[in-house]
Amino acid sequence: MDEHFEAIDAQTFLNAGSLDARRSLQGAELQHIFWRYKSLEKELERQKAFWKSTNDTLAQAFVQVREQERELKEKNELLSQSYRQLHALTERLQTELALARQIQQSLLPPRQPAWAGLSVYCVCIPAREVGGDFYDYHPLGEGRFALTVGDVSDKGMSAALLMAISLAHFDSALTFTLPPHEVLAHLDRSLVRYTRATGQNCALCYVEIDELKLHIANAGGVPPFIRRANGSVERLDVGGLPLGVGLGSEAGYEETTVTLAPDDVVILTSDGVVEAKTAGGDLFGFERLERAIAAGPPANPNAMLEHLLSEVSSFVAGAEPHDDLTIVAFQVQAATAG
Amino acid sequence: MRDYDEVRVAGALLLAVEQACVNLSFFIDEPTSEYLRGVSPTGWYPLHTYTALLDLVASRYADPAPILERIGSEMIRIWYQTGAAGLVQSAVEFLQFQTSSRGYYSMVQGPPDKIGTFELVELDEQAGTAVLRSTTPFSKDLERGVILAGISVPQPLAYANVDNSADVHTYLIEFH
To answer: Which of B128, B125, B93, B157 is nearest to A39 (CA)?
Structure first.
């Protein structure tokens, strides 16, 4: 290249005035213009290649985005379908659970039997739609009554089924006119075949009232409390293994008898009372239950039951109940006592 | 690339790729940056780090050739901006410099048969032509960009072209 050549570009060439002026351009100048032209041509080629690559890349990305959009739409539709199915299934399940709860509640006798001689009030609140707690009672004739509070281990449908079975077997056991400790041994043997596969069991406290005698047998349930007319509270600790394990019937169940006074109130509960928890995990516990019973209204089983429910409710302060809660409170009426 | 395990490249080369991509607004994301984590300009790094880095950038484009060419050109522009302008002042000086021990061979380490050659086979300064043969393990598209900017930047040229379309290893160079 001519080192002394003064570079001119195509625009200068075109602006060179008249045709004559353009004709006056000499070899080196024309040569430079030629190379500049070729240079622009090459630069154009490179630019085209670059922009084609960029454009093709964008086009590919666009196609990919469209494809992903389509896949996303399909997946979204599938997800919506699944959600709808799940929603329908949940609704059906909730309906069935509500029905199961109704059925389960219908298995329990009324909350207040109309008996002469014994004033009884019961409540059973399942923690879930269906639970494993139950209560039951039967008049045995000649001023005698049988009452029980049971608590099947675990929750949900399996617990509800074992609860129904336990209840049926309890009713059946009472036809044999057995003493309380024998009733429990009989139930333990009867339930083993239902609990063997699942490892469940049933804690149950059973009492019989024979005029002013209270006979107690306990298969792992919460011991009964007596709120005496003088305001004192007695916890009747009677031990025994839960039903359905098969060991209680082998070892035998203990039986205790205490004498009641006419204004005494007897309280049976499931462990849902003593194990009621606050959101922070504090337990209601036996001591608090004992204090609540002592502070409860005297000689009025219904008011005592409401008082205990209120105490538990205040204690947990709206925390989600983690267990079923059952209370039975009763009082021998003066006529029977007499 | 396993055969090239013994070849190492200067950290400056890796950082030049990164800076070129930044200057050109080419996409650098987390996986790309991962290759550059802790790289020092004076350090030496496995060749596969360099090639994997470029492959990753190139893989994002439908036709990587013009992209790599631009990266190569931009790397040389950066090189000139960071002091090389004092070493090289013309297209011929660039070709001589890059094919000398101070050029390509100063940026790679390894067995000669693996680092290959970057050799000025012909040079006709009057005609403005040269032939450069490369057997390096580097991208020939990127090298084409390196040579093109290398001869164009130091002095104003009416025309510069580098063509290896007939044989990728042989660059036919024109500068006027």
So the answer is: B157
